[in-house]
């Protein structure tokens, strides 16, 4: 009996086998790299022309129809040229990019609208004068007093919230056990969902009990913001501390370092980048609050007030609200410029947070 031998092609270089037309070549076929962007451009042109001829052309409809046509076309083309698995992969990829674009549309639209309308009045004069002595219809005045109030109120809220929130998170991660930990976690979760106006009413009631009715000032506003900020700081810092590997703690304990010093020298520096980001998110959460500040810090201050504990204090969100409520063109311009100023302040805070994360995070060796 003879043993069957494999048939090889003598024409293959080096005596190797030639790939079968139904095997390796089919498995190696794929769409060109330029096919996807070219297909998207062609479909956009075709759909745009069709909508223009029918008189239905508008940008949102063009984007939706082009995207749907692209999903169908790329799936069919991939199934014909490549295989079913690759076609599903391309379809899911298109859906993911579409969801990302859909999520970016409101953000880009909001930023564009604020920038276009805010730049009409935003200048050095607007940023360096207050509304003291300016009537609503006058083409004068600025937002300097509101910037000072926002920075001072938010700064005091951060001074109150960050130590309380961070130490609470350390307790929950490093020391907490049993029912006390469960109770703290429960109340933190409940406080996270408290409406902002409820925090303002709580501080108003507290202020009336301690100082009597009618006592509105920046400190009351800062306490109201801290009620909203503390649970966000606790939750974000807790998650960052849980990400620190236990091996680092155990290595420190093995060297005889006490627990409190391990937390101070090992755990916190390791998680400093995430903790800083969480604190900035909490600040961004409260810096734009309006309702609690109207109730606690007042809404009629027009002059610069450097004393958090005496008199009403204006803030940027309340300034925007008060200007929009007046309803004429000049007030709308002031409101847009103040909104752009608030966005710039938030961006600067995140820039500072990135610098802190970069310079204070532990350096990783090679």
Automatic annotation (TrEMBL):
It is a multi-pass membrane protein. NCBIfam families: 3a0107s02c (TIGR00974). Residues 1-21 are annotated as: Disordered. It comes from the Bacteria. This is Phosphate transport system permease protein PstA. GO terms for cellular component: plasma membrane. The keyword Ribosomal protein does not apply. GO terms for molecular function: phosphate transmembrane transporter activity.
